[in-house]
Amino acid sequence: MKWHFPKKEQWANFLKILTTKEKIFFFVCLFLMSFSAVFLIVNFWFKNTKIIPAEGGIFTEGIVGFPQRINPLYPSNLAEMDTIELIFAGLMEYHPQGKLETQLAKDYKILEEGRVYEFELKDNLFWQDGTPLTTDDVLFTVSLIQNPEVKSPFRSMWAGIEVEKVSDKVVRFKLKNKSGIFLENCTFKILPKHLLETVPPQSLPFAPFNLNPIGAGPYKIKEVQTDKDGKIVSLTLSPNPYYPKNKPYLEKIVLKFYEKEEDLVAAYSKKEIDAFAFSNKELLKGNPQILESSNLYQISLPRYFAVFFNLKNSKILADFNVRMAINYATNKEEIKEKVFAGEGEIIDSPILPQFYGFKEPKEKIGFDLEKAKEILKNASFEDKNGDGFLEKTVKRTLPFTFERDLKLGSKGEDVKKLQECLAKDKTIYPEGEITGYFGQKTKEAVMRFQEKYKEEILLPQGLSSPNGEVKKATREKLNEFCFGKETQDLPLQIRLVSGNEETLTKIAMILKEQWEKAGIKTELEFEDRTNLETKIIPKRDYDAFLFGEMLKITPDPFPFWHSSQIGEMGLNLSNYENKEVDKLLEKAREKIDDKEREETLEDFQNVLLEDLPAVFLLSPNYYYLVRKEVKGVFPEGKIFMVTASQRFSLVENWYINTKRVIK
Questions:
Q1: DSSP for 73-86?
Q2: How confident is the model at residue 523 (pLDDT cuts 50, 70, 90)?
Q3: How far apart are CA 169 and CA 67, in angstroms?
Q4: Do β-strands 252-258 and 544-550 pair in parallel, antiparallel, or remain unpaired?
Q5: Per residue in 453-483, pLDDT tens?
Q6: Average pLDDT value for residue range 213-231
Q7: What whole-number distance in Å separates Cα of residue 91 and Cα of residue 289?
């Protein structure tokens, strides 16, 4: 007998023959069977599929500052650096876990013990406008950096480096010396030759390209929004279809620019932006609720704040005892608590052992106010006038002194100096003749001088009248009268200069309070960035300078401490000079082996700290607040970067949308 599925009428009849209880039982069973079937299907789907990122979604970033030129040759603020990171690409790039990876390069070789670096470009590289990207663009970019007319701040990094085109895909860099740090130079963003080769070097800062750039990075500019004054207030970016790494998931990135960090918090609270980076956790103290829907990433940067002592231009700070006392008088813990909300790493060295995993310095100086006072007391500093600040009596180096007896008939340079000095007082030497010969007029002038100061010259010698001869008592008074006293009270006073950013001003005011407790009078001076870069730093116009310095993934303190970097073009802010330190820094630069470089730098730190050319304060954390909807921002583990802009180094992996696919 052939079976067939019951027809509609048969189902109706079936239900008619069932009792009420049987109908209830039937429908309950039917519901349970249906639910089980759905559950099994859903369970099968979830077990055999996985969630993966999907294209789409709009991400909005808030940034402090306003871009004026989007050109890797001239980054002047964070807004420009962040934008450059998204639009341009280099041969190499930084990974958020403190290592270098290839970006436009397919591979590289280090040859001749670090004197030659050779790179092979990836296949099918294109600019965002579809033009092929070749080694010609690499050579062109380096030529711009090296051209003095371009005035790029990166020129010193590329000085003396030869670039050779091996083929359209292979480029070779030849260095004068072995180098273990050159690879980081190659993170520099490449510029398009076909768009800039006709622009005169001196016109590059003003080229239209700077506001509508074409790069090879993961995103390209789609829209620029300006205010009524022409200031860029937002940029809309879209994915670069030619990007050689993963195609970005985010459909659109919007960069919004603000005046200050507090504006970022307000915009985030209003959901106008999805993320922002900031330097001090104090910023969130009044807004703890925004953390509930966010991921807060803590980023370690190889940067630090320090006070650099001007060893050549400050007589006070040339004294080792004063530098040691200042180190003891500095309470770094107080700075950490009051300025950085207890976050960050207190440091004692310019090579940041905590960041790089190096050994700590052999000797450290901790806060000890009484020790600071004791050192200054033993160095003959005392409070002579009761104002709470210290002074020290020191012997002056006089421009000239009278050493021999002079009388009628004497000749020579000292007679000339005598006449010049006496001529300053018309009542003593009205004739004012400068001849170098001790004649009658000079004798009479000396007699008037002796009479005027008889209580110091004549009376102690038992003389009642002047004789016009320059002997011991007259000579001592003349030396004081003509050239000043042999000793003077040198005040323990320091002019501390820093930038006018809030963090720096807070640190400076705390330092002033701490140092003055030790009797060190401290004058503060705050300057804007332009004055610092054009006047204060080039001229080393300070006694002490509060400043932040940044190292790289491969630490290279050479620019900050080698004696060749003293002067207007260098960054040796302390005017520090030590031949042993110079040799160690040169040696460290040449080391290809990481362990050997590490040992050399550890030796450098110990030698440097014996001289105390600075007070090393603190390495602050950096933070990135992102809404939880945005995923893939950073890989698991601790986050290490060289600059905050490198938070975008894996932006092609960020996503908001997801989808399920079969495993």
A1: T---SHHHHHHHHH
A2: very high
A3: 33
A4: unpaired
A5: 999 999 998 888 999 999 999 999 999 899 8
A6: 94
A7: 42
Integer-rounded Cα radius of gyration of the chain: 37
- Cβ neighbors of 81 (< 8 A, separation 6 or more) are 75, 643, 644, 645
197: amino acid identity, one letter? E
Residue reference for tokens 């559950």? 39
Sign of torsion over alpha carbons 259, 262, 268, 270: negative
Alpha helices in 200-301 (DSSP H): 261-269
What is the SS3 assignment for 112? helix
Do you know the residue count of the chain?
A: 663
Cβ-contact 59, 630 below 8 angstroms? yes
Average per-residue pLDDT for the chain: 91
pLDDT given for residue 212 in this prediction: 92
Is the pLDDT assigned to residue 8 strictly greater than 70?
Answer: no
CA distances from 106 to 169, 235, 243, 330 (A): 9, 31, 13, 49
The model's pLDDT over 630-653, given as tens digits with 9 standing for 90+, comes to 999 988 878 888 888 999 999 999
Q: Which range has the top average pLDDT, 328-332, 389-393, 480-484?
A: 328-332
**Bridge partners (DSSP) listed for residue 50:** 661
Instruction: Identify which of 379, 347, 419 has the alpha carbon closest to the alpha carbon of residue 619.
Output: 347
CB 119 within 8 A of CB 572: no
Identify the CA nearest to 421 among candidates 437, 432, 413, 431.
432
pLDDT at 2: 59
CA–CA distance, 12 with 17 (Å, rounded to integer): 9
Residue 483: partners with Cβ closer than 8 Å, 6 or more residues away:
398, 399, 400, 401
Ordered structural domains, the chain, with CATH: 43-88+217-301+622-663 (3.40.190.10), 100-194 (3.90.76.10), 303-392+492-619 (3.10.105.10), 413-484 (no CATH)
